[in-house]
Amino acid sequence: MTHLILQAPNLVTANIEKIAAMASAGGVQELGNTAVRLLDVDADARAEVMACCEEFGMDYAFFEQISRLRDCRILAMDMDSTLVNIECIDEIADMAGRKAEVAAITEAAMRGEIKDFSESLMRRVALLEGVPATALEQVYEERLRLNPGAEKLISTARKNGLKTLLVSGGFTFFTERLKERLGLDACHANLLDVAGGKLTGKVLGKIVDAQGKADHLKALADQLGAAPEQIIAVGDGANDLKMMSLAHFSVAYRAKPVVRQQANYALNVSPLDGILNWFRLSH
User: Which of 59, 80, 209, 236 does the annotation list as catalytic?
Assistant: First the structure.
């Protein structure tokens, strides 16, 4: 039996009915105001359903069965443009009047056009040389916001016994604050070098790149004995793909095309807690 979850900020009944008919659904269950579950759908209608959902601006997800969230072990997330609404490095660069230059490199790296993430990060960090370290606090306070649904997704995952992991090609200044704020179990990111109250334009230690993200997730999975079917991994850029490949529930959130093509699931219009609609929750 295949289930189809449809979600959008404003679901249109006529569109749901059209997709239900197209997929020969055995029934429709409401999952709150923004999501429905179509029961016993025809899996052969997948291509048509996908095209229709794209046209209607709806997120869709097919499942052979609906798992219990508590049967998962790990929720792993990227930070910039996934958990939070900005690319922190671009905003730090903005404080130095170099945002356009840095953002262009960030965008190319996230789209997968620059293959070497470490090299792209070093190029960008070099452009931050001389920026006052206080700019980091300013970015955190004034510009960084959690993406919609982030807090609910994380708190619900924690209540259901999942370990929460934040892995970022960004900076520890931000991940550590988010870890404390959200009660995350672990986070890994890059450490900016500071001297005399200013950024030196260098990163200290080993850079957390695509492989680094995957390695941190794999280490946690090994420690917990978590299989891919028990891992949810959420990202938006090319450097998230290796990490996401370790998870059955690989989720492209507002992602670049290269990531949407390779992820098993996508949230293009729904908030992060839309992930919860794919599972049975323990109360």
Answer: 80
